[in-house]
User: What shape does this take?
Amino acid sequence: MLRSIIGSITTLAVVGVGGFLIWKYALNEPTNMGEAKEGLQNLGQQAGEQWDEMDLGNFTDVLDGLEGLDFGDLFNDDPKLGDNTTYLWRSDYIQPSNGGLQLKLLNALDDTWQTEFAQAVSDWKESDALVLTTEQVEVDHTCTRIDGVMVVCNANFGDTGWVGINENSMLDGVIQSSVAKMNEYYLRNADYDHRRFTMCHEIGHGFGLPHTDENPYNSNLGNCLDYTDDPESNVLPGDVNMNKLRSMYLSRRLRTVEEDGTVVERTELLLR
Ligand SMILES: [Zn+2]
Assistant: This one.
């Protein structure tokens, strides 16, 4: 039984990444080789070693496509399922009166993903709460995390049960870095809509956005953070995502403590 096909892991703290993965991959036992490899890869990075890129960049054993798989049946165990917490990037990246979140995306994808990446970035740039820059870097199938940016990458992670995953590294509840991973085991030969949906979805998590709906079998809401069995009408960010981004990155939060100790948090949505 495959686990979730779209996943998202939010690590609780940068220093906790190793511990989280030990819990997930060692204590909880990997259910397959792909999962074990990914766990080892990340643990290897923690120890300052590089996982063998030969495996992650080897696409000979990937699926021919998603035909025959029930796309909607592959969301059951998403680590982010039911988690509606909204996380923000570090405050020095947020300029509410100057376009919102200022973030660089490092494009570590190989050539086959450039169209999907460019499309998704251009779609997210429609947000008035994001100021995105991109930089194409050397292809990195190990998907190494880099502080202060969102790394977007592709690799053959194997039969993990997820087509894409986003890992936001947090410190004190604040996002410090993000990695959006495309799993070539499922996506190498998938059709454009599935690839574009996954790219939009994982980049969206990288801004701190939660899911908008987690039932893949109901009607599509018209945004890429809505689980779906058929992504055709869900490949773009939607108004609900854009409004959420506005409340996250174009607002100013003021916290005051009253005499009786009541903490009042006031959120002002700033006009640009
Ligand atoms: Zn997700």
